[in-house]
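ok so i was messing around last nite and threw this chain in just to see what happens. nothing serious, just curious
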Amino acid sequence: MSIHVPLPLPTRSHGTAPPSALSEKNQTSYDCVLKHFAVVDYTLPNVNQEKAALTEDEKFWLSYECLLRYLRATNWNTDMAIKRLEDTLKWRREFGIYDKITPEYIEPEAKDGKGFIFGYDTHSRPAIYINPSKLSTEESHRTIQFIIWMLEHAFDLMGPGVETLALLVDYADNTRNPSFGLCRTALNIIQTHYPERLGLALIAHLPWILNAFITVLTPFMDPYTRQKLVFNPVINENGLFRTVADAEAWDVDSTSRVFEPDQLIQEGWNGLQQFTYSHCVYWEALVKLCEERHSRMFVAWHRMGGKVGIKEWDVKVAVRDETIDAHVDEHGAWTENGHF
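result:
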């Protein structure tokens, strides 16, 4: 039976755990960055003073894990981490993350199904599917905005302990390059303003004729991004694997599988989900799912103090536990949609 809507979040995230304690040195670095942004009278530098104070959305974004992502990306250099965070805060305003790029604004880019969020890998990372054959051969700012919109909403669908996403790109029946400018611009934005957010990029059915395109693009990737790329992964009845060796060595107790079959679409990825992109059905369901979850996380964050440095783990656990409680009836039994 065909499915036209996103899959629900996993009830429990596999292999996830609360943030581990920092070393004394790293804790000192974190405290320095937190103190910089948490002061009552903090304002963004080189910004009109009337708009220089942080908004509620920006404080929500500046989570414990967010500060750590930027610290790790700058090798724990506090000055560099602060500068990158402030640059990203300004970029998010200029790009329109909080006001311009709304579902209504970006929807025309979504109608052809060039990209969609569906399913989760074995680490509970939400998956973004990209169809290169539907990407423009010319650089399009609206397409870049759409890609960033999907990233932002994939973050809404991450459970406790999940900070990265999986990207699935299928080149089947496609031998033309998407715009090099578009790819380079999107890559630059992701590497600059979304450090440590890409967990894995799976590129399937890459024809040899496009190897030159990938070769030209690779020098613009930082080492962290390059090590996340997996070309022509192995896809069989057991799921998706990085390599032939992983697929051959897999058994029910193995951790080498990247995607289980019931989390993959059938077309192009040999999954069990007969997903067909029907825009009017999918888009409404995705927007509702993301907006409801984001709203619940925002409410939980407010309950915890609504300030810079609150842990995403704590916020997501609170939302998860509320969801579980909602699926329990008055007799303590799990309802049909409670996944137990």
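not much to say yet. The longest helix spans residues 279-303.
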